[in-house]
Amino acid sequence: MIKAKVYVTPRKGVLDPQGKAVAQSLRSLGYEEVRDVRLGKFIELSLVAVDGKEAFSRVTEMCQKLLANQLIEDFRVEIDTEELE
Amino acid sequence: MKWGIVTFPGSNDDRATARVLSRVLGQETCMLWHKDYRLPELDCIILPGGFSYGDYLRCGSMARFSPIMGPVREFCEAGGLVLGICNGFQILCEAGILPGALIRNRSLLFVCQRVHLKVENTDTPFTHRYRAGEVIRLPIKHGEGAYVASEEVLEALEREGRILLRYADADGQVGPHSNPNGSMRSIAAVLNERGNVLGLMPHPEYAVETLTGSEDGRRLFLSIIEAHASGAWRRAGRGSQNGVQAPPEAGNR
Question: Which of A37, A59, B126, B219 is the most interior residue, by most CB within 10 Å?
Fold first, then answer.
């Protein structure tokens, strides 16, 4: 089994009101160094794949088709090879 | 004229829409199930409001892959009239049948209120019963209604008259003060390139009887009915001036 981690974040330039609200909250808690917060999604997949390379290309395809909407979101795929059995 | 209304798991305006068409407007109406692979003979398809698939992941992201969306896409490409209301608009955007996307309201709040809208283009099968520049009132009820698109797409929409409704105030003034969800350029309704598919966040189906506060949505349905009856909607397509029927174009982006 291979573990894949997918990070989906709002694209630069796309309004992220949740991130803005969180940044404001952090600053009001005294974390004045916070300049920007982008709030996204973390998706973890367990999959049966031949190797990490295959898993990477399959998960990338899943992101393009369903997991992310590239008009408004960026995604990043990480394959956790340590989970290889 | 025969209408089909699609029910996805989580749709909740499907029955209200059917009631308006059949009971109020006397139209032949049939309910379609999201698992259908085939469509009956239809003249207009409505993707109704609601929370298809629980709005999980992104609104409309999973409904877009429902079996029925295959024939719905073919119907769009063949020039059939399609109306996506609220969640239906989100589904059409996710499917790439309409450009852009709908994201979380700028306020982060679910908005449920009656809003003023300025009718921008009346030379379409969906809006010809309105007057250009007219201010109408329709209800909105959504958490993800902020329309976003690239600058390039926005310019094309403006140039081609594909923004049919904009959020406005009672005087028809468009601006941040009258934008309930943070939509770019206050866009509330978007037409596809060919002119046969409309997506909008406001709910015309909840504004057809004075009893419920407004009748302004009724003319949207009447526009479609009359456009269908006269075949006039064919003239609404891009690149077809002087009432000459446009040759069918190959699909939309």
Answer: B126
Q: Rounded distance, CA B12 to CA B51, Å? A: 7
CB B176 within 8 A of CB B77: no
Nearest to B58 among A14, A18, A69 (CB): A69
Residue contact B182–A15, C-beta within 8 A: yes
Q: How many CB atoms lie within 10 A of CB B52?
A: 28
B103, A66: Cβ pair inside 8 Å?
no
In this prediction the pTM is 0.91
Chains A, B: CB contacts under 8 A, how many?
A: 34
CA–CA separation, A68 and A40 (whole Å): 10
pLDDT at residue B213, rounded to an integer:
86
Alpha-carbon distance values, B135 to A48, B161, B173 (Å): 56, 17, 9
Q: How far is CA A37 from CA A10, A23, A26, B42, B78, in A?
A: 10, 5, 10, 48, 44
Strands B146-148 and B101-103: antiparallel
What is residue B253's three-state secondary structure?
Answer: coil
The stretches in chain B having pLDDT less than 70 are 232-253
Q: Note the residue count of chain B.
A: 253
Q: Is the pLDDT of residue A84 over 60?
A: no
What's the ipTM? 0.88
Instruction: Please check whether residue A79 is in contact with residue A7, taking contact to mean a CB–CB distance below 8 angstroms.
Output: no
**pLDDT at residue number B246:** 40
DSSP-based three-state secondary structure for B53 = helix
Residues 6+ apart with CB under 8 A from B148: A14, A15, A71, A72, B100, B101, B102, B103, B183, B184
